[in-house]
Structures are given as structure tokens and as C-alpha cells.
Specification:
alpha/beta, Rossmann fold, OB fold (Dihydrolipoamide Acetyltransferase, E2P), five-stranded parallel beta sheet, Response regulator transcription factor
Length: 239
């Protein structure tokens, strides 16, 4: 896997370089303190992953990402947790690392990238076998020739990632080819609400809402700006 680092802080560059050096099959193709200096490498080399700082001179990491027509996968780095929510608005972004971050947290981001890549390797035969049948209380999801019964009330959230959907329940996570839009037909509107272009959540599992984040079972799920009013209409907070 070819990667580059776009980071203007030398200590952060050194930490990322050291961590990447511990991962087999990862090769650094360049380290840059400005996104503009990385442009030529992105045009000339096949880059699979960018470690991209948000706060950079001349142009921010987010704004630079917007200029790329077909961006590689991106792991954002930032010293400020508040910027992480905005980063989820872009499909290319796999994860974000809040500085300073440990090797364990770095490895979690890499594993998330590899997990998504594996999910996309479903072949055409598997695609044709995927289907969902439903009743009011449950759905049966056919994944890899196995029917999985999922009780609607046990669904914690549904997450989309391009052509894939992951249904997270109390006991399992099922990933298969589908769109988030289709799940409007399966989920009970009284207690499911879309809070982001990539997430529908069950409000019965929400632990708390802070700023633009929903907390469910110690997971942080971003709330998109255009979905915030609908979320608060659904949970009806008491002031």
C-alpha cells in the first residue's frame, strides 16, 4: 500500500513515519509540509492512502481534499477533536486521529481501512444472492447464502459506505451491498432517525448527544448539519 504524509509539524511526521514503518506492505512515497507540494506525487504515483493534517499553511486539509477529483483513501490528523465531525462528510475519509495518538489508535485506523477493502471484494455471484425480506418485527438478510434474522428493535444503527450497508445490532454486524435509502422501508419511523448521510440510528440506544456527536455504546456517530433538527424533533429534549 503506497501512502503519503501531508503534515506541517515535524514531530507528527516522525511519529507517523515510525508507525507506518511497523506495518508490513505499507510504503511511504513522500512526506510534505504543504498539500500543494504533494500534488505532483498524487498525479504521478498510485497513492492508496493519505495521512492528511487539517490545519495546514496556504490551504486546509479539508479544502485540499475537495480539490481532488478522485482522492485516495484518507486518514485525517488533527489536534482538535471538533474538526473530526466535519471530516465524516467526505466518503474518502476512513478515520481521524487526534494528536497525540498512540500506535494502538493508529493501528485501529489502518484496520478500519483494510476492513472496508475486504468488504468490497464481494464477487458478482455474492451480489446476486443478496436480498432482504421483511416483516414488521424483523428482517431476514441473505448474506453469502445464509439468511440472518435481525429483529428491528435490536438494530442499533445502520451505516452506509458507498455501495455497502452495515447493520449493527446488539450481537452482530452484517455488511452487504445495499443503499441506506432502502432502509426507510424496513425501519420503524417512530424510533429510527437519519442523523447523517451515512447513518440511521435507533434513538432507544442513544446514550447522549454532545455538539455534533451522538454517543451509542461508546461509539461516536456524527450528526450532519441538515439532519440535526430532525434528530431533536425525534428525541424531544427537555430544557
Amino acid at each position: 500500500m503506497n501512502c503519503i504524509i501531508i503534515e506541517d509539524e515535524v514531530p507528527a511526521q516522525e511519529i507517523l513515519s515510525a508507525y507506518i514503518g511497523k506495518i508490513p506492505d505499507m510504503e511511504i512515497k513522500g512526506i510534505f509540509n504543504s498539500p500543494l507540494k504533494a500534488n505532483s506525487v498524487l498525479k504521478q504515483e498510485k497513492i492508496d492512502l493519505i495521512f492528511l493534517d487539517i490545519n495546514l499553511p496556504t490551504i486546509s486539509g479539508i479544502d485540499f481534499l475537495k480539490t481532488l477529483q478522485h482522492p485516495p483513501k484518507v486518514i485525517m490528523t488533527t489536534a482538535y477533536d471538533k474538526y473530526a465531525v466535519e471530516s465524516f462528510e467526505y466518503e474518502a475519509i476512513i478515520d481521524y486521529l487526534v494528536k497525540p495518538f498512540s500506535f494502538e489508535r493508529f493501528l485501529k485506523a489502518i484496520n478500519k481501512l483494510e476492513s472496508r477493502s475486504e468488504n468490497r471484494e464481494l464477487n458478482t455471484q455474492q451480489l446476486e444472492s443478496l436480498e432482504i425480506t421483511s416483516s414488521k418485527e424483523a428482517v431476514f438478510i441473505n448474506v453469502d447464502k445464509t439468511l440472518h434474522k435481525v429483529n428491528i428493535e435490536d438494530i442499533i444503527y445502520v451505516q452506509s459506505d458507498r455501495n455497502y450497508v452495515t447493520v449493527s445490532t446488539r450481537n452482530s454486524k452484517l455488511t452487504f451491498i445495499d443503499t441506506l435509502k432502502n432502509w426507510d422501508n424496513y425501519l420503524e419511523p417512530d424510533y429510527f432517525v437519519q442523523i447523517h448521510k451515512s447513518f440511521i440510528v435507533n434513538i432507544n440506544f442513544i446514550d447522549k448527544v454532545t455538539g455534533n456527536l451522538v454517543y451509542i455504546n461508546q461509539e461516536k456517530i456524527p450528526v450532519g448539519r441538515s439532519y440535526k433538527d430532525e434528530l431533536f424533533d425525534k428525541i424531544k429534549p427537555i430544557n
